[in-house]
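On clarity, I found the account of how folds are encoded harder to follow than it need be. What matters is that the chain and its backbone geometry are given together, residue for residue. For the editor and my fellow referees, an illustration may be useful. For illustration, here is how one protein appears when written out as sequence plus C-alpha cells:

___
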Amino acid sequence: MTFDYEKATEHIRQAVSVSTNFNLYETNANMDGSRDWIKEFEARANKNFRLGNLLGFDSNMKIVSILKKIERY
C-alpha cells in the first residue's frame, strides 16, 4: 500500500474549509507515529457498515484479511 494519507489530508485541508483536526484516519498512531493497519481497516469497515456502505465494508474486510495473513509471516 502506497497511498499517502498525510498528503491527501493536507490537500483536503488546503482545498476545502475543514477543521485543523481533520484527518483521513479512523485510529490514532502510537507515540512513534506507527499505526496498526489492521485496526485502522477494521475501523473503516465498521464505519462503512454503520453508514450502509456494504461495498466499502466488504473491500475493507478483504484488506483486513490480507493484512492478517501477512502478519502471520
